[in-house]
Write a structure and sequence with these properties.
It is built from two helices and no strands. The protein is mainly α. The mean pLDDT is about 95.
């Protein structure tokens, strides 16, 4: 059961952080870049690849944070008398 809860915490952390970074940071920057700086479709495709790389990195960081939160929660349960 602990394994499933830990896996759920990792998945939720990864999805939440990835979603937040995408909606709050990557989409506005991408729209600005596409409208103001991109000269061709190659520029847009390069920006898309960079956005995917950033989203992947933040998904991994979110998974790590979810695992960290699970470990802290579990430690609090074990510390109770």
């Amino acid at each position: 059961m602990k394994f499933l809860i830990r896996l759920l915490c990792i998945l939720v952390g990864a999805l939440v952080l990835s979603f937040l970074v995408t909606k709050v940071v990557l989409v506005p920057i991408g729209q600005w870049y596409e409208m103001n700086k991109a000269q061709s479709f190659d520029d847009v495709s390069d920006a898309f690849v960079l956005a995917l790389a950033a989203q992947t990195i933040f998904a991994v960081v979110g998974g790590w944070l979810g695992d960290w939160a699970f470990r802290k929660w579990r430690q609090k349960q074990l510390d109770r008398p």
